């Protein structure tokens, strides 16, 4: 009975990372939508709100939407509406459940790499409660990141299982399962297009840890060096071929989707030098927040005007870290350096060379790459414990980890609270990075929804003084001015918006409302036609246009078609 209890206890400990995640994120059940992409993925998306239908499945797979090609994510949101209706708290809680599953998969992956249940569970818990990952979990729109990571982790675990010395049939089944999971990951989001580089690094990590734990030096030849032989490299290339084919296909699909929605910045708009500066700033932010996750924000603006000395210092720091990890390989093995390379490689698609949007970095981009830093930190810690006064070092290390976990848990819990509503999130972000058009724009949207029209207009003018082409503020200012009675100014602002972004329907929808109010019914009907020619329209916009056209047609019928001729004077 005692042995059975101990076995159950050992099995139950693998649920600790998932339990830690749910304890931090259970509060999201009371959260509302965030006025930053959530409407496009949920309640204003005409296909999503219908639930899971054959028409919706075809829509999801046929083309890209919201600057991404991720059909599996769309199906997930559709299924949510079938199961829960329009319930943001339920959607956010489902995100938390996916995060809990990911944390447990991280622990299993770390067990395969390090062979130590203690290290594996500790790293799974850190992943579960790290504040830098809150954005990817508490934000409903980031379901794509959670699903992509879930399938990517499953793919990595099956791949490592396939490379073990099992039967040929078992290896084949595991390999095909890994490939299928990778395809599902890419169908959720093209985040892990670097998987063909990630998997070999994971193989080398496992081989390095096997060498360190072996009792003889001959293990070196049987693991890491054997893995780097020409015959092994040829076999590796053959194994990676299907992964590479999938990665290239989805990389191209993602690029086309983002370019289609004008999300990719051209080199004319953003120079190569600015991109490199953004990349270095991003690495600096990710590393700092990994160790000390304070001052988090929903948006990190690009830093303009970096001096050559600042760029040299940032670049030199990355080089110094790489060299330092190379030098400690005698005590720590190659694991810290390989973990560092894993972190760098996983960030490549989102680090800023191909610039999407205006941000310098984003917390959600850290969701997968943090694994590399966790591996590097674990490798360093294990090396230090193995080559020093172990008892004292272990005691200090355990207390330090416990203190950091307590700090991180409190910080994460507080950060999750900010995601309860858009205004709290925007105010917290403003405190972290200062006033920026993107952050102030969220505040303006909330003020507008609260019908604080004068406050909205004042804030929008402040934003437009910083950036005269900030589209959301132009739109918010137009609506605020219309509600304040300044219809002519609102019409001018709508036309200005349409000039800046001709493919958007919202400017013409608002224009139709304002023109109808001014009695310019013929022009209002033209604006409705222009709006409808710019799909996709969300549910509320399509309904509004139908109602406007119906009212305008009824008004038109009330006016006699043939007026009597005007008498001569």
Give me a quick take on this structure.
The radius of gyration is 27 Å and the shape is elongated. It has a two-stranded antiparallel ribbon with strand order 1-2.
Description:
The structure is a single chain. This protein starts with a helix and ends in an 11-residue tail after the last helix. It is built from 28 helices and two strands. The longest helix is centred in the middle third of the chain and has 31 residues, at 230-260. The protein has 569 residues and is an all-alpha fold. Helix 15 packs across helix 16 (308-327), helix 19 (370-386) runs antiparallel to helix 20 and helix 25 (487-500) packs antiparallel against helix 26 (506-517). 71% of the residues lie in helices and 1% in strands. The protein is elongated. Strands 1-2 form a two-stranded antiparallel ribbon. The protein folds into two domains: 7-422, no CATH class; 424-557, Serine Threonine Protein Phosphatase 5, Tetratricopeptide repeat (Alpha Horseshoe), CATH 1.25.40. Residues 215-221 and 263-270 have low confidence and may be disordered.
């Amino acid at each position: 009975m005692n042995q059975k209890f101990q076995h159950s206890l050992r099995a139950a400990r693998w649920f600790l990372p998932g339990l830690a995640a749910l304890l931090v994120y259970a509060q999201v059940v009371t959260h509302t939508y965030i006025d930053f992409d959530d409407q496009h993925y949920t309640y204003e998306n005409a296909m999503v709100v219908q639930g899971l239908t054959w028409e919706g499945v075809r829509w999801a797979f046929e083309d890209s939407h919201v600057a991404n090609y991720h059909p599996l994510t769309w199906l997930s949101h559709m299924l949510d509406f079938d199961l829960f209706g329009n319930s943001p708290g339920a959607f956010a809680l489902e995100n938390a459940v996916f995060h809990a599953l990911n944390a447990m998969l991280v622990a299993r992956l770390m067990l395969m790499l390090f062979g130590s249940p203690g290290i594996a569970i500790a790293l799974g818990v850190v992943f579960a409660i790290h504040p830098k990952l809150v954005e990817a979990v508490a934000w409903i729109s980031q379901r794509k990141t959670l699903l992509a990571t879930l399938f990517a982790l499953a793919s990595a675990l099956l791949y490592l299982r396939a490379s073990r010395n099992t039967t040929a049939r078992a290896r084949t089944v595991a390999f095909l399962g890994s490939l299928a999971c990778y395809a599902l990951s890419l169908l959720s989001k093209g985040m892990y297009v670097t998987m063909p580089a990630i998997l070999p690094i994971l193989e080398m990590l496992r081989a390095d840890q096997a060498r360190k734990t072996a009792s003889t030096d001959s293990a070196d030849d049987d693991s890491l060096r054997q893995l780097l032989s020409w015959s092994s490299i040829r076999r590796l290339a053959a194994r990676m071929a299907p992964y590479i084919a999938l990665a290239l296909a989805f990389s191209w699909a993602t690029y086309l989707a983002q370019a289609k929605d004008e999300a990719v910045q051209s080199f004319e708009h953003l120079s190569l030098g600015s991109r490199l500066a953004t990349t270095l700033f991003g690495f600096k932010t990710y590393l700092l927040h990994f160790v000390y996750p304070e001052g988090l924000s929903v948006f990190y603006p690009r830093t303009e005007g970096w001096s050559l000395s600042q760029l040299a210092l940032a670049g030199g720091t990355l080089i110094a870290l790489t060299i330092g990890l190379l030098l400690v390989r005698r005590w720590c093995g190659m694991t810290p350096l390989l973990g560092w390379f894993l972190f760098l490689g996983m960030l490549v698609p989102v680090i800023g060379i191909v610039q999407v949007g205006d941000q310098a970095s984003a917390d959600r981009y850290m969701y997968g790459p943090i694994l590399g830093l966790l591996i590097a930190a674990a490798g360093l810690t294990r090396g230090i414990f193995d080559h020093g006064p172990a008892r004292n070092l272990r005691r200090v290390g355990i207390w330090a980890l416990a203190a950091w976990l307590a700090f991180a848990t409190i910080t994460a819990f507080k950060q999750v609270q900010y995601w309860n509503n858009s205004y709290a999130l925007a105010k917290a972000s403003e405190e972290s990075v200062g006033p920026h058009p993107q952050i102030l724009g969220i505040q303006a949207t909330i003020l507008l929804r609260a019908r604080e029209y004068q406050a909205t207009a004042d804030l929008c003018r402040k934003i437009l003084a910083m950036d005269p082409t900030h589209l959301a503020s132009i739109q918010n200012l137009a609506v605020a001015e219309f509600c304040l009675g300044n219809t002519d100014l609102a019409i001018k602002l709508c036309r200005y918006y349409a000039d800046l972004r001709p493919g958007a329907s919202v400017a013409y929808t608002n224009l139709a409302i304002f023109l109808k109010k001014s009695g310019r019914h013929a022009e209002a009907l033209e604006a409705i036609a222009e709006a409808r020619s710019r799909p996709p329209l969300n549910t509320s916009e399509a309904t509004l246009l139908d109602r406007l056209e119906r009212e305008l047609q009824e008004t038109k019928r009330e006016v006699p078609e043939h007026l009597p001729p005007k008498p001569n004077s």
